[in-house]
Design brief:
Layout lengths: L1 H18 L2 E8 L9 H18 L7 E8 L5 H13 L5 E4 L3 H15 L2 E4 L16 E6 L1 H14 L4 E7 L2 H16 L3 E8 L7 H10 L3 E5 L5 H12 L5 E3 L6 H7 L7 E5 L4 H13 L8 H18 L4 H4 L3 H5 L4 E3 L4 H9 L4 E3 L7 E2 L3 E2 L3 E7 L2 E7 L1
């Protein structure tokens, strides 16, 4: 009997060891391209959650999480698709955090994720078109749609007494979706968009586009572009020519690199970026500071939440298969349940193992609505004396 019991014990230990495996998660962001200055903090946020789950020892039999980075370029759908394919087929990732920019995310969803049955959570793809994209239930995002951000932009401008704006947008899914959402909301509030001019990234001269916008007039130039690319070029040209002195900066234009590039010409400009003043945001800021990155950088908190939500969903499903864990994501993200903040992922895993409901609140007050996207909270900021200052939340 003792021999049998000893054999059972050994087999049990072997089974536990077999379960303790590596789970690879793809981190598909634009490490090169028009958002490369904010990507490091996004990746750091996602990988912080992965490290926290690994350190708990409570994830799927003690399995550890291994992040695998790959470049989406943000704007090249073919390159992003190839990167995603490599992540799945060569690296063997179980799921993908990303993409980052809407166009490449949609391409990866259709060309790689759906055919391969791989789940994705994007922390920063905001195009309204993704709300109704065919996804087989495999796609979620912790970033709010630009349908929401467009309304926020209109609200902020209207509250500041702005009645007319000129509008430029980067000529892709992200820029067009945001421009359309904003223009509709601003018109409904009684505002006037004097001219709408798309711009291409990668140009050396934006004076023609700025001249067209300037001739139409407007109190503010709204720039729905990229902080390290055409959006920056449009603002620089407008400042150099004196065409506009105040700029509205939505999420893709938020970053210290823009202030470094433009300088005093940005003082008095303002904008919005997803964010909240919640307890979760404060806790995430502490964790990020300890890890050596900026919690206030665009979509850093959303990236932490994307990774945490993904891994907790896998734990709830006891599976890394896309169709299994994505079926748990809405329940994990929303009430009812024990609220879970950043730094409490080990606690969340214990509660899941005990069969207790959790409500993942995270760094950004996560609440997923129809289409698997964030309901959305926004931070209003203004640039004063060369520094970004928070002036409110919406």
């Amino acid at each position: 009997m003792k021999t049998l019991m000893g054999t059972v014990a050994v087999l049990s230990l072997m089974a536990g060891a077999a379960m303790a495996d590596e789970v690879k998660i793809g981190v598909l962001f634009g490490f090169t391209g028009p958002l490369e200055s904010i990507t490091p903090s996004m990746a750091a946020g996602a990988e912080l959650a992965m490290a926290e789950v690994s350190a708990s020892g409570a994830f799927m039999g003690g399995s550890t999480i291994v992040p695998v980075r790959s470049d989406s370029t943000c704007v090249d759908a073919s390159a992003a698709t190839s990167s995603a394919e490599r992540l799945v087929t060569a690296e063997g990732v179980a799921a993908i955090i990303g993409g980052d920019c809407s166009g490449v995310t949609g391409a990866v969803l259709q060309a790689v994720a759906r055919p391969q049955g791989v789940g994705m959570i994007s922390p920063s793809s905001t195009s309204p078109a993704l709300t109704t994209a065919e996804d087989d239930g495999l796609f979620f995002r912790t970033a709010p749609s630009d349908a929401r951000q467009g309304q926020i932009m209109s609200d902020i401008l209207t509250a500041r007494g702005v009645t007319s704006v000129a509008l430029t947008y980067t000529n892709n899914d992200y820029g067009k979706g945001m421009a359309d959402a904003f223009a509709a909301a601003f018109a409904a509030a009684g505002g006037s968009v004097t001219a709408t001019v798309p711009h291409e990234d990668g140009k050396g001269d934006y004076s023609a586009e700025v001249a067209t916008l300037a001739s139409a007039g407007g109190d503010v130039l709204v720039v729905a572009g990229y902080v390290d690319q055409g959006g920056k070029g449009m603002i620089q040209s407008a400042v150099d020519s004196g065409a506009f002195s105040t700029f509205y900066l939505p999420d893709g234009m938020y970053g210290e690199s823009l202030i470094e590039a433009i300088g005093e010409g940005l003082n008095g400009s303002y904008g919005s970026v997803p964010g909240t003043d919640s307890d979760g945001a404060a806790k995430f800021a502490e964790l990020a500071a300890a890890a050596g990155f900026d919690a206030s950088s665009s979509y850093a908190g959303e990236s932490y939440d994307a990774a945490a939500l993904m891994l907790l969903s896998m734990a709830a499903a006891n599976s890394t298969k896309g169709a299994d864990w994505t079926a748990k994501t809405m329940d994990i993200a929303n009430a009812p349940g024990e609220p879970i903040l950043p730094g409490e992922l080990a606690k969340a895993l214990e509660l899941i193992a005990a069969g207790t409901d959790i409500d993942y609140v995270g760094a950004t007050s996560v609440e997923l609505i129809g289409g698997g996207e964030s309901a959305g909270n926004f931070r209003e900021f203004e640039i004063k004396d060369g520094k970004i200052e928070t002036v409110g939340y919406r």
